[in-house]
Amino acid sequence: MKALRRCKIFSPYFYAHRRNLSSVADVTLQKAAEEEEFDNVWKCKDTNILPFLHRAVQECAKDRAAMNGKSVHSQIIKFGYEADTLTTNMLINMYSKCGSVDFARKVFDEMPHRTLVSWNTLMGSYIQKKDGEEVLHLFVQMQREGTQFSGFTVSGVLCACAAKFAVLESKQLHAFALKVSLESNVYVSTALLDVYAKCGLMNDAFRVFDSMPERNDVTWSSMVAGYVQNELYEEAIMFFHRLQKSGVEHNQFTLSSIISACAALAALLEGNQVHAIVRKTGFGANVYVASSLVDLYARCGCIDEAYIVFSNAEVKNAVIWNSMISGFARNARPLEAMTLFEKMQLAGFYPTEVTYVSVLSACGHMGLVDKGRIYFDKMKKEHNLSPNVYHYSCMVDILGRKGLVEEAKDLIENMPFAATPSMWGSVLASCRVHGNVEVAEIAAKHLFELEPNNAGNHVLLSNIYASKRRWGDVASTRKLLKDSEAKKERGKSWIQIKDKVHTFMVGERNHPSIAEVYSRLDELLVDMEKLGYKGKAEHDLHDVDESRKHELLRHHSEKLAFTFGLMCLPSNAPIRIMKNLRICGDCHSFMKFASKITGREIVVRDVNRFHHFTNGSCSCGEFW
User: Fold this and answer.
1) Which structural domain, as residue segments, surrounds residue 423?
2) CA–CA separation, 526 and 64 (whole Å)
3) Greater confidence, 255 or 478?
4) CA quadruple 168, 171, 177, 178: dihedral positive or negative?
5) DSSP string, 339-365
6) What is the DSSP letter of 182?
7) Boundary-marking domain end, from 461, 489, 517
């Protein structure tokens, strides 16, 4: 009713007796009358009130004032305008924006004549409510009644299909768009490629994109996001390069998506280039772009750079707080992670399930059992969050690191979820560190069932037996491995030099600089052995004789990657290595000695975590 006041309907032209108005409208009119000091009875012609009612409906829609909107609706009925098409369309829009979809539908159903706007507005309301099924029903009804449609209509229905991952319906709509010659409409085509991308059909999405005569920035960003959502990160980066050549302006959605692709690949060079674009285009203030940058640098082991981005973010939401806490935990900075967890709450943000996974992981890095238990209980009691399988997995890590492998085993057996291979793998690794053979056998038995093709579990159990000099069990475990079909995934490491990624396998022969690498590595090993480094053949998992084991051990992939980086990178640059498996004990020892001898910072990202080697020590604290 504020709109009625603004429109100054209390003029000599308005005649509506105030006692007949609804209670809300009556109070509003009465106050306005007192302010304007009108003592006369308002009079006007009925035809002149309609514009004011329209203004009132628009104000209610703008303010999301459902109660006032219903009051105005009652006046529309009173004055007999409920059959007016423009008025009813505005009412549908008002109820939709107020979230009262049932009222919007009631107005729609009672309309004697519906226009395209009526259908599109109601469909949009159901799309916002994520009721894709009702959108499809309305579209079918619309076709049966012979109502004219537009590209906006079809693109809206496609958006509903995307939300429901409705592949069949999407293909039917694609055929429909071709039939009615809407395939060249940029909004329809963009919606089509978006739904295909969300359904995992990137080849179909690309075909739609490639056939489009006209594209906008939303089209390009939808394709980049589609590649990222489907974990096609290299394709996303290549597509982004194509976008740059096309001259299309960047938007925050494209930049956030491509930064996520760089983060997933730990492609620091490309990530730095995109960060430069972010600075140039001014999107650094966008909280989602900033969150992606924090995640990028944290995943690349550049935790200090990640914190700089976080600190400079003008606006912070729960996502960027979670990204930073997770980054600290991933990079073995547990104290910073826990401190930031407390700061997050002081800033007025409630921790989420993701937050607790990060902070529990931080506790695992330091073996803080009591602190981990406090956080685990706190998420239920203070924040009403139910622990999921990831939280239980973190607790298993915490207990195992502290040597409480029996308690870790009991936690797995009594939790309300089926145990994952990573949980039993964590227990088995803890048994190796703390020498608990009995629990190791239980964990290994579960792992043989859950991961029958993973030879690493057999070898780890064999090494545990060997540490206790149980040679008979070592022999039987090795025989079981040989008789099974289990195969160890071949380890590989890669390092980026300038704009090229160099990959190394154990005993690498194909790299063009491999001869120089082997020569430099041999020199390095001689220097390291003088300081006490000795290769440990038990860490080589190949089924070959002892001398061959020592040869392969010297030429593990991460050692080759490190040596190549030492040869090619500037003397003050950190050496960053990625590995597809867990770093072995011998290579871990090698990296510590190498960091001390060369004075270089070495960052190794293996399948479990980051290892930051500096001056002969590792951030993992000898637990990984």
Assistant:
1) 388-489
2) 75
3) 255
4) negative
5) HHHHHHHHTTPPP-HHHHHHHHHHHHH
6) -
7) 489
